Amino acid sequence: QVQLQESGPGLVKPSQTLSLTCTVSGGSITSNYYCWSWLRQPPGKGLEWMGAIAYSGSTYYSPSLKSRTSISRDTSKNQFTLQLSSMTPEDTAVYYCATKSTCSDYDDPIRYDYWGQGTQVTVSS
């Protein structure tokens, strides 16, 4: 069974860049045709898909976050990473990494099969 674990800072100052890493076990991030995503849930709001990296290394981003988001991977460590720049208090949320077996409907949170436990990120000075 695939397991995912997010890691990164819990507190970020406004204007800084957030960097989160998702470490995957029980499966490879290069396995055909898996899709590996970052999602978040602000307090009192629904889940928001942020972006994905496919097994091939292709990346997909939410149009609303594309200018501030970068997703990359380290295949030797079986990890993928989110960077979100120009953080504001509105970016305060629980951030999740998740995966599913194809990249179709990659922007639909309910399609994801395996999830990390989530990590709280607060943006505050």
Q: What does this protein look like?
A:
By secondary structure, the chain is an all-beta fold. The chain has strands at 3-7, 11-12, 18-25, 35-41, 48-54, 59-61, 69-74, 79-84, 93-100, 114-115, 119-123. β7 (69-74) and β8 (79-84) form a beta hairpin. 0% of the residues lie in helices and 47% in strands. The mean pLDDT is 96.
**Number of DSSP strands?**
11
Distance between the termini: 39 Å
Strand content: over 45%
Indicate the mean pLDDT. 96
Question: What is the H-and-E element order?
Answer: EEEEEEEEEEE
Largest sheet: 7 strands, mixed
Question: By helix and strand content, what is the structural category?
Answer: mainly beta
Rg (C-alpha, Å): 13 Å
Low-confidence stretches are: none
Estimated helix fraction: under 10%
Overall morphology: globular
| Structure annotation, total helices | 0
